[in-house]
Design brief:
This is ABC transporter permease. The structure is a single chain. By secondary structure, this protein is mainly α. The chain has a domain of about 40 residues. The protein contains 2 helices and no strands. It starts with 19 loop residues before the first helix and ends with a helix.
Length: about 60
């Protein structure tokens, strides 16, 4: 009877053994995060395009000093 510590390791699953949905899920997650980042950048750009916002922001920053 072989010793338990000397038992062979179980085989590693190959790359082709991954479920098909896992790649699609990873693609969807990446696409969703990219969409959120783009929307956030567009929102920041829209705020900076408004002079009143920039004036208010600069006054608030200047009030800190």
């Amino acid at each position: 009877m072989p010793h338990p510590d000397l038992a062979p390791a179980p085989p590693r699953p190959s790359a082709s053994a991954t479920p098909v949905g896992a790649g699609l899920r990873q693609w969807g997650l990446r696409a969703g995060l990219t969409l959120v980042a783009v929307l956030l950048l567009l929102a920041v750009f829209a705020l900076y395009a408004q002079p009143d916002f920039l004036l208010t922001l600069s006054n608030q920053i200047w009030a800190c000093f």
